[in-house]
């Protein structure tokens, strides 16, 4: 295993990049702890697969360094970096049995037969492949073949890092949860550094201890699932994570307090803003808004425009003048019709300047 340090890394697919937009991956520095479970999360084209391929050695960086522990591996091959990679589509040898597919990486490295047998059966048991060990891989379903790919990445005990590039894309939806849970369990059992690339927030948040959120070629925030949800560092994180995403409302700052439509909105901590302007917004997730009852304190006047049933709760859409505000109401709680008052939880209301969290 290895601690991975990414130091001022940039990458361009064009020769002699001159402008910031020439870079598919903007300058970034990042540290991935030895034995951690990480997810690279973001929309298609944000640079997450480029970053994965730079770490694995399938690409060499235009600028910057990648270190495994204290060794610069920027010019080393994937084999020299001692990594295992599982791709989006399963790569298996159809004419081989499941057993031989799993044993293949170990046989190539001259591992003794007894150790190969022990490792293959251990990984097969973890992935519920035991009953199929003597069957040819050609007869398996897509999820069975992807389990083989996962197993080949896990069977080696000497790798520095195991990388997964959207490994559940071809898996039926009802099996994805099972395999995600299995991967999480495997990480706890084998305690190896794992990096998981996905555009699916559910996959990222259920697998990873820490999530690296990316957009437009740069890292926007690194944090635990709770940190990303409760304190998004950028409005993009607030929109991308959560369903529905965070409300972002234009505001001004008056007498040291954010003000929305003439109403002061309490937030935690002091406001310290530079004097060079910028776009100001209040960010609050639908989970932290309630309809106001008889409590005292500041409220926002709205009109209820839409109610959608989502099972355990309802998604209620309201409007304050031209601004949409969504909140979640637990099933069974009353939802007013027409005019209403909203109350924001001050502990979970944040101020953003040009998209970035203030304070």
Automatic annotation (TrEMBL):
InterPro entries xref list: AAA+_ATPase, ABC_transporter-like_ATP-bd, ABC_transpr_FbpC, ABC_transpr_MalK/UgpC-like, Mo/tungstate-bd_C_term_dom, NA-bd_OB-fold, OB_MalK-like, P-loop_NTPase
TM helices/strands, residue ranges: none
SMART domains for this protein: AAA
Alphabetically ordered keywords of this record: ATP-binding, Cell membrane, Membrane, Nucleotide-binding, Transport
Gene Ontology molecular-function annotations: ATP binding
Residue stretches making up the ABC transporter domain: 9-241
A Pfam entry, by short name: OB_MalK
Domain of life of the organism encoding this protein: Bacteria
Matches recorded under PANTHER family: ABC TRANSPORTER ATP-BINDING PROTEIN, MALTODEXTRIN IMPORT ATP-BINDING PROTEIN MSMX
Similarity comment: family membership: Belongs to the ABC transporter superfamily.
Name of the protein in its database record: ABC transporter ATP-binding protein
């Amino acid at each position: 295993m290895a601690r991975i340090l990414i130091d001022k890394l940039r990458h361009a697919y064009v020769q002699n990049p001159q402008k910031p937009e020439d870079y598919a991956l903007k300058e970034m520095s990042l540290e991935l702890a030895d034995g951690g479970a990480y997810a690279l999360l973001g929309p298609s084209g944000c640079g997450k697969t480029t970053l994965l391929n730079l770490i694995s050695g399938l690409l060499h960086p235009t600028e910057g360094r990648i270190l495994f522990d204290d060794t610069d591996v920027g010019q080393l091959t994937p084999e020299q970096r001692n990594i295992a990679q599982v791709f989006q589509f399963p790569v298996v040898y159809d004419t081989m049995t499941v057993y031989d597919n799993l044993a293949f990486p170990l046989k190539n490295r001259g591992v003794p037969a007894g150790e190969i047998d022990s490792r293959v059966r251990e990984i097969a048991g973890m992935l519920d492949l035991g009953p199929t060990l003597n069957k040819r891989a050609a007869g398996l379903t897509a999820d069975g073949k992807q389990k083989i790919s996962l197993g080949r990445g896990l069977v080696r005990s000497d790798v520095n890092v195991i990388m997964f590039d959207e490994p559940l894309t071809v898996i039926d939806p009802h099996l994805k949860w099972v395999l995600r849970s299995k991967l999480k369990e495997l990480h706890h059992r084998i305690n190896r550094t794992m990096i998981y690339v996905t555009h699916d927030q559910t996959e990222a948040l259920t697998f990873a201890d820490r999530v690296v959120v990316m957009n437009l070629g740069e890292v926007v925030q690194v944090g635990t699932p709770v940190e990303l949800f409760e304190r998004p560092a950028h409005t993009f994180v607030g929109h991308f994570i959560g369903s529905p995403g965070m409300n972002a409302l234009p505001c001004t700052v008056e007498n040291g307090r954010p003000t929305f439509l003439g109403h002061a909105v309490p937030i935690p901590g002091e406001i310290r803003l530079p004097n060079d302007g910028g776009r100001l917004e209040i960010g609050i997730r639908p989970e932290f808004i309630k309809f106001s009852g008889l409590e005292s304190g500041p409220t926002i006047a709205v009109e209820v425009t839409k109610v959608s049933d989502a099972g355990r709760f309802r998604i209620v859409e309201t409007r304050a003048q031209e601004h949409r505000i969504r909140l979640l109401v637990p099933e069974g709680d009353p939802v007013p019709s027409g005019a209403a008052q909203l109350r924001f939880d001050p502990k979970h209301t944040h101020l953003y300047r040009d998209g970035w969290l203030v304070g």
